[in-house]
Amino acid sequence: MTAPTSARSVTVRAPAKINLVLGVGPVRDDGYHPLDTVYQAISLYDDITVSTAAGWSVGVEPIGDVDVSEVPLDETNIVVRAGVLLTEHHGIARRASIGISKGIPVAGGMAGGSADAAATLVALDRLWDLRTSDEDLLAIAAELGSDVPFALLGGTAHGTGRGELVESVGDAGTWWWVVVPNATGMSTPAVYAAFDDHGGGGSDSAAVLAALAGTDLDALTAGVRNDLQSVALELRADLRLTESDLVGAGARAALLSGSGPTFLGLVEDQDSAHEVREALLDAGHPGVLVATGPVAGAHVVQYA
Ligand code: ATP
Q1: Please, which residues bridge with residue 157 across strands?
Q2: Bridge-partner residues for 13, per DSSP?
Q3: Does the annotation place 110 within a ligand binding site?
Q4: Which residues form the active site (predicted)?
């Protein structure tokens, strides 16, 4: 899509991410953990709409049942940090109002804030015709957070470093996921602190990368792994029920998303996805969603 130079607002859509493998190594001197992860972008989205304004402002509205009460509306929102970094990079003094339509569960381990940051970078770049190079956008994204570069890229990607070094990987499959959010969010730093106390981890992505290369659902089922899952389940015993309900309903694997508390059920196809979703809803888990991956990274959906 070519940008009309007179656009007054730009809307960019960015996906949630899941980690098919989240291999976590021992904490580094800089406080971050080295990751060996395979990201997949799935079909839950936030839309970000930007328009030029005298000062930075943030608005948020939910899509569906998403609880947006914990989303900050001041300059601590990551979308404002994204806007400030982009303007500093270009040495310009512009400001914008930023509207968030949120379909990605908040504090769910699906990197909704990171998706918003990536979408804001792309939206402001197009609104102001800044023509930021992909390389510079990825570098600004990495400064904002470890998951932000992947939200720009989308698809399926191998992530290393602290997760900010991303490389697309071949993934010809359409994978079906049942997404079970949880009303009580989890703090990512708290989960990593518990991980540091317990040790363990060190999973690698080789089996999942091979499963994706061969579009092999059995191999993917056997390979998915999250090194934070056992500590998250110790911190939040209630999540064990989510895990066992998913398996009981017929999911091939039950995987914690990122640092939780969202759980993901890997299922065979669309029919099984809807059956498992119904079973989870009947078992008393509200807001269960069906999603597929991989999907595209942050992309423009409207110029107005
Ligand atoms: P991660 O796994 O990257 O830590 P998450 O998916 O668990 O993230 P997010 O939804 O990204 O969680 O939000 C984490 C916290 O960040 C929220 O509790 C909220 O206070 C703050 N936050 C700042 N900006 C945003 C935003 N645009 N959307 C959601 N939360 C935001």
Answers
A1: 39, 168
A2: 47, 299
A3: yes
A4: 17, 147
